[in-house]
Amino acid sequence: xxxxxxxxxxxxxxxxxxxxxxxxxxxxxxxxxxxxxxxxxxxxxxxxxxxxxxxxxxxxxxxxxxxxxxxxxxxxxxxxxxxxxxxxxxxxxxxxxxxxxxxxxxxxxxxxxxxxxxxxxxxxxxxxxxxxxxxxxxxxxxxxxxxxxxxxxxxxxxxxxxxxxxxxxxxxxxxxxxxxxxxxxxxxxxxxxx
Length: 194
Prior knowledge:
With 194 residues, this protein is mainly alpha-helical. Helix content is 80%, strand content 0%. The protein has a single domain (21-193), classed as Cytochrome c oxidase, subunit III, four-helix bundle (Four Helix Bundle (Hemerythrin (Met), subunit A)), CATH 1.20.120.
């Protein structure tokens, strides 16, 4: 009887702890938030300098925002499907999330080509330089998420014995929601700052 109570207490204590990979992800996300907060703060401080040019918000950015919002929904639905052990639905939703991530990147590319064509380049004002640095860093994080999604898709379609450990799916879901929210922040920031 005493061993059963101790075992239950041990299980309850284990459930209260955060998984080490989740903790690491949250620390990394905190670091990324600090980096983007610093960059956008520097943008605000520097924008009053002479010769600072603004840039038009391309229509492709609106479309890419809609795409990344939908992808956030699909990654959440894939997590739910995984937890419900609906593996075919999980695979399809995860694959669709990866495709939406690629569409997001392509729309971003089109938008930045439009900004470049309007004369806002790296050689021009600090506005262009900050824009490309901030957006480039976001793109690197999105591409990292796409790579992680592709790895998850390959694992989901693997024939070998599957594990129903939801931690990797929760990690990719959390990260993908993060890059989604980060883009929303940057999009609103550049809309209002210009």
